[in-house]
């Protein structure tokens, strides 16, 4: 399913802001739904160009900051493209989670083994014998015992 994604870099001032640098945030917008995350960089509001979503100036630190933001933008666009081509469900939240490295709920080896055994159990008599399931259950039991010790 093809979806459009928009990216926006912006400064997010806290209510207690007086002066000094402000944190730069990245907002993902997919189908009018938003998700945002911090870029872990900051910029002085006087040097921020809101139209461009970048810092303005020619100093070395400004060029490095803009290059960093360009890398983040290309990474986000690449993730969106990979998710779209892979027919994954693309939402602002899923793109953000993938972007920040928040993995999907991962399974432990024991959980995968238990899932395997339940599938084998449903196939007894058609593709597997009961003794095969007993061997798998014994293997699972010993792996749990070894993990506890």
Q: Tally of extended strands?
A: 5
Helix content: 40-55%
Q: What is the N-to-C order of secondary-structure elements (H for helix, E for strand)?
A: EEEEEHHHH
Question: Major sheet, described briefly?
Answer: 3 strands, antiparallel
Structural class: alpha+beta
Q: Number of helix segments? A: 4
Overall pLDDT confidence: 87
Q: What strand line-up does the widest sheet have? A: 1-2-3
- DSSP strand content: 15-25%
Envelope shape: elongated
Distance between the termini: 48 Å
Computed over alpha carbons, the radius of gyration is 24 Å
Which regions have little confidence, pLDDT < 50, spanning 5+ residues? none
Concise synopsis of the structure shown:
The chain has 149 residues and is α+β, with helices and mostly antiparallel strands. It has helices at 60-85, 92-100, 109-122, 130-148, and strands at residues 5-11, 22-30, 33-43, 48-49, 54-55.
What does this structure look like?
The chain is of the alpha+beta class. Helices cover 46% and strands 21% of the residues. It has helices at 60-85, 92-100, 109-122, 130-148, and strands spanning 5-11, 22-30, 33-43, 48-49, 54-55. The strands form 2 sheets. It has a 3-stranded antiparallel sheet, with helices on one face. It has a two-stranded antiparallel ribbon with strand order 4-5. Strand 2 (22-30) and strand 3 (33-43) form a beta hairpin. The two termini are 48 Å apart. The model has no long low-confidence stretch (mean pLDDT 87).
